[in-house]
Design a protein that fits this description.
Layout (H helix, E strand, L loop, with lengths): L4 H8 L3 E6 H15 L3 E2 L1 E2 L1 H5 L3 H10 L4 E4 L2 H7 L8 E4 L8 H6 L3 E4 L2 H14 L3 E6 L11 H9 L7 E7 L12 H15 L5 E2 L16 E2 L22 E13 L4 E2 L5 E2 L4 E6 L16 E4 L2 E6 L7 E4 L13 E5 L5 H7 L4 H7 L5 E5 L3
Parallel strand pairs: 1-19, 2-10, 3-4, 4-5, 5-6, 6-7, 7-8, 8-9
Antiparallel strand pairs: 1-11, 11-14, 11-18, 12-13, 14-17, 15-16, 16-17
Helix pairs in contact: 2-4, 10-11
The structure holds pyridoxal-5'-phosphate.
The site of pyridoxal-5'-phosphate has 12 residues, from loops.
């Protein structure tokens, strides 16, 4: 019999455990691939695959047929590249760091070139080595974050020799408002990308992140780049989340107590008990990625019972109100749900005034982690 994550977490002395469901991850990838039709479906595994483990996530997605992986920083690529088979392409979204060109080339890492200067540096290395180097070129179509400006795009199109030393796999841009499908900025960025594409005929195009996949066929282009939807987060704000949950988080009860009305609870005495109440102290706090802003809106769950967070969240612990539970329903060593069937990652993010991305990427490294469903 397999040891339960509760037992493992207790034995490991952690304040909680994360269950990461790789079968659900793969199901999400398959669902998004079906949506993309002819287009290829990549996977964004930056920030340690949104906190879930870039190695485990990439290995599972490779098994599901994914061959295009995106990280943000070159350092992430240096770590992940040896774990990926040679036929997996690994792209660095944040560009080509000056001084890292040779390492990227040696390791078969493909930079997303975001400026004329980056194009020139990569092309110079290719010429020096006498071999074409693979690259992606990014254009800014309305986010003002990364990529060549419209003027730089026209300049590059007018001087195609600047790309001849390079093997351009595709050109790309990123959508600023894909999570709000009704936003007219989306159509504007697509139109802009089509103009740029006309300047570079024959090159495949990548535009859609998770939200972009749900904006209609025009946005799919040749290669999509979903991140959050793979990890079970809602791809947009339009209606029910179509993705399967991938992450569960349970946190340990490390002490319980009964306090009389008038008791001040937590740092700053920020909460005062208005009645006699029972409290449970949980063994995780903001250092584990449970933001202070969760207090006082957020909650944990025990079965179907909601346990409101009371008082400020500490670095390594927080308190919840367990008055609604039968006496001794929860005792030291039990676990309560923070992310799971009663509280999605989007729901806890909303209570904290943030987005699912920030909750996932902040999930603490102290939790015991169990990966399930990897075939
Ligand atoms: C993070 C990122 C993505 C993935 O976005 P999601 O909204 O998580 O799907 C895709 N493309 C770029 C350029 C990104 O920075």
């Amino acid at each position: 019999m397999q040891t339960s994550p509760e037992t493992c977490a207790r034995a490991a002395g952690t304040g909680g455990y994360l269950v990461i469901d790789l079968a659900a991850l793969v199901a999400n990838y398959t669902q998004l691939s079906a949506l993309t039709g002819q287009a290829l479906t990549g996977a964004v595994v930056k920030a340690d695959a949104y906190g879930l483990g870039a190695f485990q996530v990439s290995t599972a997605l490779y098994g599901a047929g994914c061959r295009h992986f995106f990280v943000a920083q070159a350092c992430e690529a240096f770590t992940l590249r040896p774990a990926l088979p040679a036929d997996a392409a690994l792209y660095v979204l944040n560009g080509l760091p000056e001084g890292a060109e040779a390492t990227c080339a040696d390791q078969n890492i493909i930079p997303v070139l975001n400026s004329p200067h980056q194009i020139a540096r990569w092309a110079n290395l290719a010429k020096a080595r006498g071999a074409r180097l693979p690259a992606v070129v990014q254009f800014d179509t309305g986010m003002a974050r990364l990529g060549l400006s419209p003027e730089e795009a026209r300049g590059l199109a007018a001087a195609p020799e600047r790309l001849t030393a390079l093997d351009i796999h595709f050109i790309m841009s990123h959508l600023a408002c894909a999570d709000t499908p009704e936003n007219t900025a989306n159509a504007g960025q697509l139109a802009h990308m089509r103009e740029i594409s006309a300047l570079f005929p024959g090159l495949p195009v990548s535009l859609a992140n998770s939200g972009g996949l749900f904006l209609g066929d025009g946005f799919l282009q040749h290669l999509t780049r979903p991140g959050i939807a793979l990890y079970g987060g809602a791809p947009n704000d339009a209606g029910p989340n179509p993705m399967q949950a991938v992450v569960g988080l349970h946190v340990a009860v490390i002490q319980t107590r009964t306090v009389p009305a008038g008791t001040r609870i937590g740092y700053g005495g920020a909460h005062t008990a208005t009645q006699d109440m029972r409290l449970a102290t949980l063994g995780a706090g903001y250092a584990d990625g449970l933001p202070r802003s969760l207090s006082p809106r957020g909650a944990a769950w025990h079965g179907d019972i909601r346990l409101p967070i009371v008082g400020r969240i500490s670095m390594d612990s927080l308190m919840v109100d367990i008055t609604a539970l039968p006496a001794s329903a929860v005792t030291e060593g039990d676990f309560v749900e923070l992310i799971g069937p009663h509280q999605s990652v989007d729901a806890i993010a909303a209570d904290a005034g943030t987005i699912s991305y920030e909750i996932l990427t902040a999930l603490g490294r102290r939790f015991y982690r169990e990966y399930r469903g990897h075939t």
